[in-house]
Amino acid sequence: MKKVFTLILALALGLGLKAQCPLTTAVDFTATDCHGTEVHLFDILDGGQYVLIDFFFTTCGPCQQATPKVVESYYSMGCNMHDVFYMEISDRDSDAACQNWATNYGVEYPTIGGPAGGTGICNTYGIDYYPTVILIAPDRSIVINDLWPINNAQTVIAALEQHGLQQHDCNTPSYDPQVSITIDQVMETEVTATFTPNEDCASYGYMMATEAEIQEWMGIAGLDLPEYLWTYGIPGSGELSNTFNDLTPNTEYMIYAVPADIDGNLGEVVQVAVTTTPSGPTYDIIPDFTGTDIDGNEIHLYDILDAGQHVLIHFFLVDDTYDFMPYMTESYHFFGCNTGDVFYMEVTPNGGNDAARAWAERYGVEYPTISRDGGANGFVQDIPVGFYPTVMLVNPNHEIVVPDIYPITDMQVIVDNLMQYGIEQNECPGIGVDENMESVMLYPNPANDFVTLKGESLGTVRVYNTLGQKMDEFEANGSELRISTANYESGIYFVKANEKTMKFVVKH
Q1: What is the pLDDT of residues 449-470, one digit of tens each?
Q2: Residue 80 and residue 120 in one domain
Q3: How is 54-81 classified by DSSP, letter by letter?
Q4: Beta bridge partners of residue 51, listed in sequence order
Q5: Rounded to whole angstroms, what are the CA distances from 346 to 226, 360, 467?
Q6: Which of 105, 170, 211, 414 is positioned for an S-S bond with 331, CB 3.0–4.6 A?
Q7: What confidence tens digit (pLDDT) does each residue in 307-325 have?
Q8: Partners of 472 in the β-ladder
Q9: Is residue 251 located within the same domain as residue 154?
Q10: 0.85 cut: is pTM over it?
Q11: Are residues 324 and 381 in the same domain?
């Protein structure tokens, strides 16, 4: 029978009272075991494990008899690494006494002594008899109030299996360290890549080399690829970006990385091929691209080109400073603010929306700016862009007619390059807008389903959005034109007629 520690309890036992924990729901606790490890009950339960608690004290005879059987069941149930987590709690013993107990009985699971919190926990759980073994489910319900008698390890195992817990081998925790490689920027002599480890990856080694180089180096060192990367690669931990310099243009390289877990075990090598760019873009036909600018507008390159506009693309880096930017914004206004023959946009692969927005505000950029968040990274790799800045002109046939306007010493350089392809100066919508013009009337304003334009000799009428993109074009026969706005999104628009520009609002 169990040993009791008060005369009253002994008398109660004699009257046939059952020794058990009186609670039905677990009470949270945090305590430090005799080896200095902090144990937080609800953290274990919230992780999905059951918790078995053996309440004991070191001079308790029944505890001394039961503990070897509980320890044996601990090994059969997977050593705290699977369905159930074992711990034992004393109401009175010191850390030194608990350490000696754990050594004598081969207890590898947490042992919490009285002064370290065990006394309070035993009182909270109403433990009067020792040993008392309870089982707590992940939902915090106490599903076994007292497992007794413990005849052998199978007694414990069978009780746990009744609650769906399974036996497991005591294997070392399995880690699967991995690291991914993302190519951020490719240039003639530089490549920037980001390395991102998973939660099992404590550290990694990485490098960049040609196939011939890596084979030669491995042969000299007498190591296979994982060991070579770990021994001679650049050490890394956590997510980081690195720029590899002094590369040969138009050459295929491989970026390698080998991850390691917390114990230093190496994972599978990951490798990504990348080819440095030649001296400038070599594509005759630009690949299609759909991205989202920093204001949330979707920009589809081929849609703009197929509508008949040229596209001027400025590839830039947010961290650089370009003296020619005032000439870019000035020429944008000179050519009609994206409403004329040419559509301006700029693309950066090395900054997110916040950095790109700060750039645009610094230089007063009014045309679309697409950052890495909007898909710029993939676009510059598809072309690819060889160096920064690059100011490229693409014609409506998707042809790169000017790979790079450089150097830009004044606005006239841009104007000359664009005008040689028939791009003419144009007026920006919104400039000189006169909403009270007597020669042309626009109503209703705001509009819902339609807007009416009335005036003499209206001629060609064009509607633009605030990005400067042409929405519609009409030939007015007479002095009145009704334009359907049912398919326009709510917002501000400009209508151009009679060499005059007027603003109206669509509100659905």
Answers
A1: 888 888 777 888 888 886 677 8
A2: yes
A3: EEE-TT-HHHHHHHHHHHHHHHHBTTTS
A4: 85, 136
A5: 41, 10, 13
A6: 414
A7: 899 999 999 999 888 999 9
A8: 463
A9: no
A10: no
A11: yes
